[in-house]
Specification:
Length: 389
């Protein structure tokens, strides 16, 4: 077990003023996580406490009775399932502000005592991640106002928010559902379309997904609609006539699914004529992982023999791998961000330069971890054992 040092604090973006000494002269950091108060006395305990949204707090917040006492919380009881990540964040900051006022720190009345990092906000409000400038809008607003509710309201009033969550607001501006529920409903629509071999991106680009949400159509109701349409289409003898018409007039050989997509909505016919349905099947799978796949990238994957099911496996691995590599390269001070194209270069095109760059990041992380684990100090203070060259 290693002692908490200023270097450990710096690695976790914690101010040195948050390091205290207990009655046994041990270095300690107090952490608030999931409505619990944690005393971390080792680097390992601190790392575990900070994971999953834990934040370091001042000693007076840890012991002050108005904030719930040591290891206790106060507030209104809620039924299971009522709380949301947004509610947790709002409650947390509200309690912090109340405590600051009770301590009487008038000289910093207009300045928030604790300003969360983007990573800490992302852990508590995950729907902000990967949504353009929404996360930065939240951070900027919180720094300006010191209020979580105002920051959330500022995000929901941006033009970007409407682009990522079309249909979520009613005419009066109220929300039909929260953002986490929106993502679940949208993914439910996507899965139903994919199960029927239909490309969700074609429907979303035509505005059909947002129309379903704006119409308060549940996932189960949408499934019933698709299944009923599929049954009617299977029994419809005109389907072959439609395919013959496209073949004769536009030199396009339509599949049954392309005709079925067009039968669901006339606007989809435009996408069929542009040959978008067959070209962007992979894009739908990438979108489910919050990855942006360009038409050129999709065509290269198709040329490499990557099918829709193969793309699903590729993007599932790529999403986690990209996040891992970017976390490591930021710690290592590497400026070049790892993106989906880099993964395609290594996984599909076997680009040796891209492979070497990613291996350097992983190998440097292993070297640092090995050096930290193997280095030991003698009683005289000398460093013994494995060290970095």
């Amino acid at each position: 077990m290693s002692e908490i040092t200023n270097e450990i604090l710096a690695e976790n973006s914690i101010n040195q003023s948050m390091l205290y000494t207990d009655e046994n002269d041990n270095n300690v950091v107090y952490v608030f996580k999931n409505d619990e108060y944690i005393t971390a006395t080792t680097a390992e305990e601190l790392s575990e406490a900070l994971s999953g949204g834990g934040v370091a707090i001042a000693e007076n917040l840890f012991t002050n009775e108005s904030y719930g006492g040591t290891g206790t919380t106060s507030g209104t009881d809620m039924d299971e399932g009522d709380a949301s990540p947004t509610d947790d964040l709002s409650s947390f900051f509200t309690k912090l502000n109340e405590t600051i006022s009770s301590i009487g720190r008038q000289d910093r009345e207009d300045e928030p005592t604790f300003v969360p990092t983007p990573k800490q906000i992302e852990d508590i409000v995950p729907w902000l991640a990967g949504k353009g400038g929404l996360l930065q809008s939240y951070v900027d607003s919180y720094i300006e106002t010191g209020n979580a509710e105002f920051a959330l309201g500022a995000v929901r009033n941006t033009e970007e928010y409407a682009l990522y969550y079309p249909g979520i607001k009613r005419v009066d501006g109220s929300l039909r559902m929260n953002e986490a529920q929106y993502e679940q409903v949208r993914e439910g629509y996507y899965r139903i379309l994919l199960e029927n071999d239909l490309n969700p991106l074609v429907f979303e680009e035509a505005g059909k997904v947002s129309s379903l949400i704006a119409g308060d159509v549940s996932v189960s109701e949408f499934r019933t609609r698709i299944e009923s349409a599929r049954t009617a289409f299977t029994d419809n003898p005109i389907a072959q006539e439609i395919k013959d018409y496209y073949s004769a007039n536009f030199q396009i050989d339509l599949t049954d699914n392309a005709v079925f997509a067009a039968s669901l909505d006339p606007d989809i016919s435009i996408s069929i004529l542009q040959n978008q349905i067959s070209q962007s099947q992979l894009g739908a799978e990438a979108a489910l992982r919050n990855l942006d796949l360009t038409t050129e990238q999709a065509q290269r994957l198709i040329q490499a023999g990557i099918t829709q099911s193969g793309g699903q496996r590729l993007f599932a691995r790529a999403s986690d791998y990209i996040q891992q590599l970017n976390r490591l390269r930021m710690v290592q001070g590497r400026p070049n961000e790892i993106n989906l194209q880099d993964i395609i270069n290594t996984e599909v095109q076997q680009d040796p330069a891209a492979q070497r760059e990613q291996e350097r990041i992983l190998n440097q992380n292993k070297a640092i971890s090995t050096a930290q684990a193997g280095a030991a100090q003698t009683q005289g203070g000398e460093v013994a054992g494995l060290t970095e060259a």
